[in-house]
Amino acid sequence: MSRRICSLRAASIAAALSTVACTGAPRESVDAAQSAMEAAKSVGAETYAMEAFTDAEKALAEAVAEVESQNQRIVPFRSYTEASRLLREAKDRAEEAKKQAEAKREEWKDEAETLIQQTQAALVTARSSVASVHGAAKRKQLTGTLQQAADLLFEAETLFKSGSYIEAHSEAEDAKANADEVAEESAAQT
Fold this sequence. Notes:
Layout: H1 3-22, H2 27-42, H3 45-48, H4 50-71, H5 81-130, H6 136-161, H7 165-189
Helix pairs in contact: 2-4, 2-5, 4-5, 5-6, 5-7, 6-7
């Protein structure tokens, strides 16, 4: 073999090896996308931005499937271009889910806090109206309903403190409904 042919072969092998080195699995992109998903989960995206989070999960699954598909190919024929694009998309979607979740979580927090305050006021009003109800049996019934409202309010406050704002809102809503019902029935009995 001539020196020129050997040099060409060596150059071809070197080029192939450099291509293999350049087409390795996009580990950093996979890590970045997974990290973005974990960040979204940490702010409650599964609850507060369910649709956006689900889209991010699907995008990540598609990207990982593409990486795995390329890993099955013979090394010189692997191309992670599409996988890299999909991983960037998954990361972007996870970041958007996180952003939406943070905003929605803050909205639920504000609404739950307001409703808890309204419920506390409704309980005060209901308690004062029960005192003027004629008839011990009716007063006892209304006091029982009032106690249920107070228990629900306590649960709402506990949930609020733990950061479960949707559940806190729901409990406060039920507590307020009970307190309002007591106030209405008390007014009708006086």
